[in-house]
Amino acid sequence: LIYFSMHPGEKNNGFDVLYHNMKHGQISSKELTDFIRERSTIEEAYARSMTKLAKSAGNFSQLGTFAPVWDVFKSSTEKLASCHMELVRKLQELIKEVQKYVEEQAKAHKKTKEEVASTLEAVQNIQTISQALQKSKEIYNAKTVEQERLRKEGATQRDVDKAGVKAKKATETYKSYVEKYATAKSEFEQKMAETAQKFQDIEESHILHMKEIIQSYSQSVDETHIQIGELHNEFVRNIENTSVESLIQKLAESKGTGKERPGKPRQSCTCYSVNQCQFVRHQGFIAVCFSAHTRLQPEARPTKNWTVDDLLLLLLLSLFLFHCRCLLNFFFFCSHAKENSFYSSSDSEDEDEPRKFHVEIKPVQPNNVSVPFSFSGTSRGPSPVTLASQDALPIAVAFTESVNAYFKGADPTKCIVKITGDMTLSFPSGIIKVFTTNPSPAVLTFKLKNTSRLEQILPNQQLLYSDPSQSDSNSKDFWFNMQALTSYLRKVSDQNPSASYYNVDILKYQVLSDGIHSTPLNLAVYWKCTSGTTDLRVDYRYNPDSMASPGPLTNIQILVPVDGGVTNMQSLPNSIWNSEQNKCLWKLSDISEKSENEGAGSLRAKFELSNGPSNPSTLAVQFMSEGSTLSGVDMELQGSGYRLSLSKKRFATGV
């Protein structure tokens, strides 16, 4: 900063630059406060959502073998909410520190302003003397040249002497300003050196303080992430420790009716048959067997009164066991040892011993099983494409741009233009299954090309990452947060399960404009208004230079409001007059370079009035074009795993 102040340029503006740079530091501090406050708001909203989710888990059904698992979910989710609320508390404390620093910064800047007042005077003094010195130098040169010219041309001695007096006076004045400038320069350099050191000290302190704030912010976030990681590990351990046997044991202990065998001493269990399936309660435990008989003889069964609750309990248990069998692919054998066997009644009451039977439940074969309920959601029909995880996954992209232009009369220099664009990616519904079944899907990366004409790019920060340090001004690389993308696609799929494709807004951008040269259709409007008539002329011209790849403009409509009580209208080409809205509408065919006069033409109309004169009004123009954009921006996929199946481009007039 000292070197900068000692080389301030011809106009000695170094002081102003340094002073305003100091003020910008205060703006940065306030913006950092806003950023941390917004992060705190997001964390608080997330924590409240987690608390609400934990309450939901606590309200889920407590019936069935799976019920204890909800307690694990509830406890883990409550702890997760607590972690984020703790981060909110830390961020709120940090905000207070930053606000305190902003106040101290304002006081320091005010004090510095008072201390450098003399430097400002020195700056203004040298600027004034510099101007006077330059002016006196010019006068000195002019008077000296004039005296020499008179001498060479043989002018009278009197004229030569008069010129000499003026030259001498100019010389003395110039010499005086040279001396004043030397004194002012010395004072200026001394003052600026001191002031620049003050500014540098302030900036160094500011940057160090800001880095300390950011370090505290990073530490708070890092601590939260560590806590969340530990919490997740705890959740995983709890789920692993919740075995199938322990869940069944808990169910038996909470729902069992006793440990004594019911009925006759010789029988070891109670059975009930429903459609060839036996539900057996044995010493507080419950199992499921498939009977070898088509029906059971009730008179051979032990006496037992079954309630509706018993049947529901048994049904839930059977569903759970069937689920476990499918997932874990295990074998369950009913022992046929005499002391532990399950008995069915025989077809004859005369047999002394009940007939034994052996049941073996084999693993389910996927090709032979039809599951009535999905003992994941309703199918939405076939996907438009059949995708495998090893295939290059197809995606489509669409660029849609909107051009808004304001033409004032016939003056092209007063044309105001704003062009904005949206980039949308389309994913086939089948891609969701690939993403969810693959724990590490290929990262979707793309390059946005021809970005030199873009003034601003606003990516979807929830889904996209980018490197702000990229040096290429004509392209920019982006890559997806695949976990966030998968979650988003799953969410929209749940909302609209029958859709074949899902569109995702990726980014928005604003295009650099060059006034009327950026508009695909240039306009000039001329009004001639009298008390009895209004003459209107609209000149238009197709501008292919505004488009990256010129294409025809379609669906062109020009709407002009005309007041003053229109009683009759004549127009060329023919237009439509709406007497209710007092508007004149032209509908034109496509305009392109191949049109008559290369897309240039005029619209004329004469309006007869009953209550004139009319007031010139703002006309509205509508058109669109398919297959091209105004910016020329394009997309190129990077890496492997994906292919671009379709690219659509269009632009239209804005709303």
UniProtKB/TrEMBL annotation:
<dbReference type="Pfam" id="PF22699">
    <property type="entry name" value="GMIP-like_FCH"/>
</dbReference>
<dbReference type="GO" id="GO:0005886">
    <property type="term" value="C:plasma membrane"/>
</dbReference>
<keyword id="KW-0254">Endocytosis</keyword>
<dbReference type="GO" id="GO:0072583">
    <property type="term" value="P:clathrin-dependent endocytosis"/>
</dbReference>
<keyword id="KW-0168">Coated pit</keyword>
<dbReference type="GO" id="GO:0060028">
    <property type="term" value="P:convergent extension involved in axis elongation"/>
</dbReference>
<dbReference type="GO" id="GO:0048488">
    <property type="term" value="P:synaptic vesicle endocytosis"/>
</dbReference>
<dbReference type="InterPro" id="IPR054713">
    <property type="entry name" value="GMIP/FCHO2-like_FCH"/>
</dbReference>
<keyword id="KW-0175">Coiled coil</keyword>
<dbReference type="InterPro" id="IPR027267">
    <property type="entry name" value="AH/BAR_dom_sf"/>
</dbReference>
<feature type="domain" description="F-BAR">
    <location>
        <begin position="4"/>
        <end position="247"/>
    </location>
</feature>
<keyword id="KW-0472">Membrane</keyword>
<dbReference type="GO" id="GO:0048268">
    <property type="term" value="P:clathrin coat assembly"/>
</dbReference>
<dbReference type="InterPro" id="IPR036168">
    <property type="entry name" value="AP2_Mu_C_sf"/>
</dbReference>
<dbReference type="InterPro" id="IPR028565">
    <property type="entry name" value="MHD"/>
</dbReference>
<feature type="coiled-coil region">
    <location>
        <begin position="84"/>
        <end position="111"/>
    </location>
</feature>
<keyword id="KW-0597">Phosphoprotein</keyword>
<dbReference type="GO" id="GO:0005905">
    <property type="term" value="C:clathrin-coated pit"/>
</dbReference>
<feature type="domain" description="MHD">
    <location>
        <begin position="392"/>
        <end position="655"/>
    </location>
</feature>
<comment type="similarity">
    <text>Belongs to the FCHO family.</text>
</comment>
<dbReference type="InterPro" id="IPR031160">
    <property type="entry name" value="F_BAR_dom"/>
</dbReference>
<dbReference type="GO" id="GO:0098793">
    <property type="term" value="C:presynapse"/>
</dbReference>
<dbReference type="InterPro" id="IPR001060">
    <property type="entry name" value="FCH_dom"/>
</dbReference>
<protein>
    <recommendedName>
        <fullName>F-BAR domain only protein 2</fullName>
    </recommendedName>
</protein>
<dbReference type="Pfam" id="PF10291">
    <property type="entry name" value="muHD"/>
</dbReference>
<dbReference type="GO" id="GO:0030136">
    <property type="term" value="C:clathrin-coated vesicle"/>
</dbReference>
<dbReference type="InterPro" id="IPR018808">
    <property type="entry name" value="Muniscin_C"/>
</dbReference>
